[in-house]
What we know:
Number of strands: 5
Radius of gyration: 15 Å
Mean pLDDT: 89
Structural class: alpha+beta
CATH superfamily: SUI1-like domain
Number of domains: 1
CATH class: Alpha Beta
Distance between the termini: 42 Å
Number of helices: 3
CATH topology: Translation Initiation Factor Eif1
CATH architecture: 2-Layer Sandwich
Amino acid sequence: MDICPKCGLPLAACVCGEIAKTQQQITVTTEKRRFGKVNTMISGFDDGVDIKAVAKTLKMKRACGGTIKNKVIELQGNHQGHIKPVLVAEGFSEDQIED
């Protein structure tokens, strides 16, 4: 049986990821790029969160492309009003997400 190095619980019962999700201060902004294209930028993720899984879920739910650069998720298009419900469904605290 493997033990989590952070909390000392077995990996099956580890809650480190859930605790890390509630302590994030996430900011959602838009940025205008070349040729008038708009990207939605989601930043503020710490090391305790699997940012790749979050990005994959956001891209799937919003049906868009995107990438991760320097711990910032970039989604193609303007999704600023639609990101908060998806992140709350993923387990992030609604109070910590700033639109």
